Amino acid sequence: MKSISDIEKQIKQIEEEILNTQYNKATEHHIGKLKAKLAQLRELLERGKSRKGGGKGFLIKKSGDATVAILGFPNVGKSTLLKELTGVETKVADYDFTTIKVIPGMMRYNGASIQILDLPGIIRGASVGRGRGREILSAIRNVDLALIMIDPNDIPSQLDEIIKELYAAGIRLNEKPPDIKIVPKSEGGINISKTVNLKISDRTVKAIVSEYYINADVIIKEEITEDQLIDYLAKNRAYVKAIAVANKIDLVNDRNIEHEIILNGKHWEVIPISAKEKINLDLLRKEIFNELNLIRIYLKPVDGEVDYTRPMILKKGAIVEDVCKNLHRDFVNKFKYALVWGKSAKYPGQRVGLDHVLEDEDIITIVSKR
Fold this sequence. Notes:
- Helices cover about 30% and strands about 25% of the residues.
- The strands form 3 sheets. Strands 1, 2, 3, 4, 5, 9, 10 and 11 form an 8-stranded mixed beta sheet that branches. Strands 13-12-16-14-15 form a 5-stranded mixed beta sheet.
- β7, α6 and β8 form a beta-alpha-beta unit.
- By secondary structure, the chain is an alpha/beta fold.
- The protein folds into 3 domains: about 110 residues, no CATH class; about 160 residues, P-loop containing nucleotide triphosphate hydrolases (Rossmann fold); about 70 residues, Roll (Ubiquitin-like (UB roll)).
- It is built from 10 helices and 16 strands.
- α2 packs parallel to α7 and α6 runs parallel beside α7.
């Protein structure tokens, strides 16, 4: 078993080799292999440090229809925002590290109960454990949406730093897992099958995969980068949706705020708010609800009136069967048909089955077998 210092030394050597190797078609496969080795070593290092303590994360009990975490550097106004969105009072002061534990609150919006978590402020180097960074970042892995809160005077720099810290911790923001399938086998080496033309060569793909498998069939169905392939192979990446919020706009000229920026080829829209002065908080609530892909389903009893006061909150893409399961499992067993009114229905009161896909604000009646 390698010691932590040995692993760290090996990581530094590989990082230097990658930095000093000119990237071109001739060296692409070698750099890819080095990146795969680096990912494995970093995972070993993380596991080793976790065993020593300090990497287990905060204990968070999820509740409500979805969970959102507020993440940012200290003194950016996270606690004030939590109070305005949920009514939860926390200690607020104009100095760093006011919050030293996760503070939960519940935001009610459009009939949904959305859990909001105020996380301790992160500092530079959080991904390598500074300032309880591993614990804070590990909490992000399990939420439905990360709300990245930044200073309006330093939007590109702060957003870029936080994204990099999350990336180093294995968290991919606003990305989907690559469409790849790898089937291990007992012999035959590594074979590649693809339905698209890749910018990276087959030789590079084989070099990377060989760090994880000796024999395997690799099926690639979309354009991918070396890093995306390594992410898939590592199997410890978290894919989390995120929005960026610039707080304290009451202290700056709104026209000087960068509302749209591009970082590492990705487009980010920045929502300008003031938690203290309650500026644009309704806009933020709406954006949170939309980004969570929640839909409202209204229930109508047979021969009864629609209950508009308590919608059932489901994820976009939900089907009639999900409604039945939310009511009681017997509704699935005794299901006869459903009647649907709304955007998903071809006509009002359409008769549908369990696999019918619902849309926001649909009305549904479940008819059961007697």
